[in-house]
Amino acid sequence: MLLIRKALVPILVLILVISLFASVTVQAAESARSKEIVIKRIMDDATAIQEIRAGKSDGRLFRIPRALASELQAEGAAQIVISWTGMVDILLNPVPKSVTGKFNPFEYREVRFALNYLIDRSFIVNEIYKGAAKAIIAPVADIMPGYVEVLPVLGKYRFTYDFVKAYQMISEAMKKVGATKTPEGYWVVDGEVVTVKFIIRIEDERRQIGDLLADQLEKVGFKVERLYKDFMAAITLVYMTDPKDLEWHLYTEGWGFTVDRYNEYDFI
């Protein structure tokens, strides 16, 4: 997966969790050798696991939900390999009004920073991932070689879910730019209700994470347009359009882990 994004403007990433998942491998006959490896592209977990159960596939080189992994392990039909496989974050588009002519609340650092308190990482880890995840606040986790390099910075912050604090921070930032509220509680700037476009992936737990955050954003006064997208539709909108077109404001982004260090890539 290529991580070079020189075509994009700087975009803030708020990291939520590192996902702990299980890969599945089927017991092979002793001394058996494979003459050919066939790789199938199956997006749906249930379909992939059914193929394994039916003997049509020998493994799933991707994460699967913990509940499903437990079922397979109980059946004794497969070996479960547990590993840290990736991380999930909320990607924000901070392109300013001076570029687009349209108001964007995520132009303001105070609003972006407030999301750290608006996101309930503990709920996501325990209720959505059922404990198969770990909360983090930076794109470098403690299992990565470069963690010690960013630890002094991370040590300054103790982010926990605090709706009242997030609401106050966002309210102060919005009032500074002259925003008012409708009777329904939505922010209004330049005579228009502030609406943010939230691209939410549908294939996995990010659907629930997206809905959870969208609900919170509505409560602090932003009207949310929920755009539910699969892999191809989402990356086309997020990575293949110019951020200044404001096709999106937030995205339930996810990355897979490799053996490479984070600073071996050219991030912007």
Quick synopsis:
By secondary structure, this protein is α+β, with helices and mostly antiparallel strands.
Characterization of the model:
The structure is a single chain. The chain has 268 residues and is an alpha+beta fold. It folds into 2 domains: 13-20 and 85-259, Dipeptide-binding Protein, domain 3 (Roll), CATH 3.10.105; 21-28 and 40-84, no CATH class. Helix content is 32%, strand content 24%. It has helices at residues 45-53, 66-75, 97-100, 109-118, 121-128, 147-154, 163-176, 206-219, 231-239, and strands spanning 13-25, 59-64, 79-92, 133-135, 180-181, 187-189, 192-193, 195-201, 223-229, 250-256. Strand 6 and strand 7 form a beta hairpin. Helix 4 runs antiparallel to helix 7. The longest helix has 14 residues, at 163-176. The chain starts with 12 loop residues before the first strand and ends in a 12-residue tail after the last strand.
CATH class of the largest domain, anyone?
Alpha Beta
**Intertermini distance:** 16 Å
Shape-level CATH architecture of the largest domain: Roll
Low-confidence stretches: 1-15, 17-23
Say which CATH homologous superfamily of the largest domain is assigned. Dipeptide-binding Protein, Domain 3
List the helices and strands and how they pair.
Elements: E1 13-25, H1 45-53, E2 59-64, H2 66-75, E3 79-92, H3 97-100, H4 109-118, H5 121-128, E4 133-135, H6 147-154, H7 163-176, E5 180-181, E6 187-189, E7 192-193, E8 195-201, H8 206-219, E9 223-229, H9 231-239, E10 250-256
Parallel strand pairs: 8-9, 8-10
Antiparallel strand pairs: 1-2, 1-3, 1-4, 3-10, 5-6, 6-7
Helix pairs in contact: 4-7
